[in-house]
Design goal:
The complex is a heterodimer of chains A (375) and B (424). Chain A is mostly beta strands and 375 residues long. Helix content of chain A is 6%, strand content 63%. The chains are: A mainly beta (375), B mainly beta (424).
Amino acid sequence: MTARRIDGWTGRVLLGAAVLLSGYPPVRLSAQDSQFGIRGLGTPGRFETVRARSTGGAFGPFDPMSPLAEASLADLPQLTATAMGGTSYRDAEAAGATTSLRASRFPVMGLAGPVFGRLVLGGGFTTYLDRTWDVTLRDSLLLRGTMQPYSDELTSDGGVADLRLAAALRVGSRFALGVALHVLSGSTRETAARIFDDTAYHAIKQSDEVRYDGVGVSGSALLDLLPGLRLAAFARSDNRLRARLGDVVTTQTDLPNTVGGGLRWAPSPSVRLAGALTRRTWATAGAGAFNTVSWSAGLEVGSGFSPLRLGARGGQLPFGAGATAPTEVGVAAGTGRAFARGRALVDVGLEHLERKGGGLSERVWTFLLGLTVRP
Amino acid sequence: MRALRAAWLAATLGAGAAAACVDRATSPATCPEFCPSGAIDVVDAVLGTSITRDSAFRGYVFPYHAVAMTATDAPGAMDSRAILRTSALASGLVLNSGDTTTSPLVGADSMKLTLTITRRDTAAHNLTLKLYRLPITIDSTTTFADVQSAFADSLRAVNVDALLAKPGGVDSATGDQAAIDTTSKYLKVTLKLDSLQAPYVPGDSGKLGIGVRVGADAPTSVTFCTRENACGAAVAWFVKVDSIKGTDTTLIHKQLAAVTLFDNFVFDPPNPPLDSTLAVGGAPSARSILRVTLPRAIRDSSQIIRATLILVPAVPVKGAPSDSFVVEAHTVLADFGAKSPLVLDATRTDTTFVRVGATDTVRIEVTNLLQFWTSDSTRPEVMMLRSQEEGGHAGEIRFYPSAAAAYRPALRITYARRFPFGMP
């Protein structure tokens, strides 16, 4: 029956897309690249699917497939798999110079479904920290009595993924709980290269692979205050991120605690409004790191197979050069389309972000593509 | 409607796939605010005591085995002359394909001798080559004094610069010619000798001993290619053969090729015996061995980007004035002292020029050698210094050894420390 429903040309396209999205190596998992993350631990990922990102992240605590708050899994009626990809076009402006950059990432993949009665289990991975960057610089150095100009290229490719195992239970008709265990794992391939203008000095090229690990736990709850009005609360604690070269731990960095909440109001079956607020204690990560507060507000219109989504977000970034945290504001829009009687959903979104801080500003356009399958 | 949905899906996935094709992640850094905290740390250090247990040895390549032989005319400084012996000629020739007997060789009309000059001093004008008749008994034990008396009356002399200036480099009156090979840039000079200058002596089977001196308006030095380098002197005989066919005693004129069976050069004054200094060059050639102890921090966890061997000459470089030669620094496969086998690999060899008469500090870039050692810790940290055309010239340089504390050999190393990967 199912096979017949997603059979044909549409089914083959969906199957191909699913294979392409799921076949990407985990080391490439990373989300928003940003130069603000180069100096710190990296650029934190967003625990949001395309649907949530298209609403500025406001629907994140209520979206069952967004790995932000696991309590929302309790409303998942059937086995569901999702994956998303995004391509960012970024203009970084510093010291009067603008550089255009482009990156493609696959930050979220998840699988969840009910197992025993009202208990729903889910798992998947998300980008926790993106550490992919490639910087070049030009300078000179006094060597053997002569200033020697050189070009440096420092690169890092990879990141830290959040592997999540979550469980959610609808305790009552108006209350749901969820908990999750997070295993942080990843690696980066890092290189440092220098080429002197004077060829009497040979080129320098060093590289190594850095592995990362850590763990975290999270919990969340959903409470329906009124018909159409839902409150979400979530919290998460990550212990520390260990960086290893071979078997040697090179650094150990404390990771943040996260607390947040959201409110969703559905004045009619076809209109949903939501807002969310999140605080993360990134300052524990060391010098140059800041605690962050971020907000988001969004709207989803349409109850059929093609909703329209709008949203805005703002807040701070955890790593920056100045005395205060860099700021970020953005808007997003998106839509989706259901196929095979709702068993396959394709979501698309477009997000624009502006980040500022410490003399650097970034403007980012991100095209988002998500695929959800309910076999 | 179904087709519309399919088209919407295909367009969306296609746009996503196209956009995701290529990352462009390189950006100019705004340092230090938006750069990685780590930086490449380059250190420059002079290792003054890292070279120890150095010594010199002589007798690696003898002049008669060298790939070059040098003739020098530098009065008061160096006098060296090339000597060679041509091969024997057959006593008879088969004149026709059906002949069962050979016809005897009864004399020579003339002979052409071609010498290949691989290096010459173009600043010294009117370069002249003079040929002398030497006894055919010359061999590897022949010294400058043994043949000095034979260099009294020259058989022939040719002004090479004047010959090159003639059309086509040919002197139609003498039959001499000169030409420069466009590929190798070698100068080939052919001298024609008549039957009096190059007589066929049946008792010697046609063998000839020939000596070559050079001269010019100023002290000069010329290097000839040798048979060891497959470009030794070539000999073309034009001989007379008695046909002996019945009553026919017609003399047939034939051309016969010959080669040099032996070539060498003799010089005065000879290289002084070895002492405590580090000698490189001369003939027979001398080599110096230097043993290096690299600090473990550099050898094990650093990347060497430049290394310079610093050597102070103990005496002015000996040889023909205005001449120069190349000193090579090799590493060895194993440290067997004087008999250490060299690693003969162009990528593992570093060189420098030294000028005769100079006393300046010699610097040899030995980055390749040190990188070779750091890439494989089983390699012996041993350097062997030798001249490039080993045994082919009398030029010799002597450096202060490690025992001379003030002027001992030193290494100047520029290296990059290990990058602090894994730091935020």
